[in-house]
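Input:
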Amino acid sequence: MEILTQPWHWSIAGVIIGLTVPALLLLGNKKFGISSSMRHICAACLPAKIPFFTYDWKKEVWNLFFVGGVLLGGTIAAFWLANPEPVVVAEQTQARLLSYGITDYSHLLPSEIFSWDHLFSLKGFVFFVLGGFLVGFGTRWAGGCTSGHSIMGLANLQWPSLVATIMFMAGGFLSANVILPFLLKHL
Amino acid sequence: MQQEINPHTETPEEFEIRHLDTMCANDSELVHPWWYNFKYTLAGILFGITFVKAEIVSWFRIQEMFQATSFHMYGVIGTAVIVAAFSIWIIKRFQLKSIYGESIHIETKTFSKGQIYGGLLFGIGWAITGACPGPLFAQIGAGFSVIAITLLSAIAGTWLYGKFRDSLPH
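Output:
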């Protein structure tokens, strides 16, 4: 049981995530991807006669069942396989986060940012609303996210997915090293 | 086993829209009862548990990745790509079929400028929220209820992309 509750090694996680690709292909000829689920939610709930959402979303309902499973898996891991110890983070990153006032490592997300108390502040607006918006708008414009491009696309040797992955990383490095320090110091 | 060939319920136009800007359109020709989809839920559960247990859903791990202070996330993604690439190679090499006997077909992606502009925007958002779309679902499941706001905003972002798609460079 302890093997399950302590944080899993990256190689174990990499193998399980990698095997998700053939599992979905063999289970029903489905290509691994997650961000499209948000498009299907739009198409199902609020198509508003927008051409981009005018398709038969029921053909893609498997994707919603899959992300529903991801959510349930999160619940199982957090409530039955929880690690009681704080998250172990690299010392250099800890030192930098300390300078932004982030010191709470007891959960997977820092309580200094991700709590309901901050929702109606400028901080909450930037981290939840603006951050979420960039994830949704950006992944759709890019035609996929980490799963679709960086795993499925790279594994299938698609060069457009390599371009997308390089841009994800470029945006992430810019954001974590330039934008976030500014935001955390001034919000 | 119940299965039937898909009657032509979709116009070529609808087919094309469904395949627009996505990596994972469903190309299976088979139609099954809805509850057959629960096998994808099972795959999702295993995937979601892994996300939380390997701390891939942790904002801290994403900061480490983008500050290049830990190998953890590079190890996860690198291993996943190698395992997936090897699996796809085997599937193609031996022309494996799905459990329903259907040939497996993966379509080739075309380049679009969206992969540059959209990719950059997503990257910026990824470091801020500490989550790509998969972890958003797992974080909500793990009890971080406020992330539901992030997910709703991401869905709104997707919707606005759809609304203004024609005026964006591709």
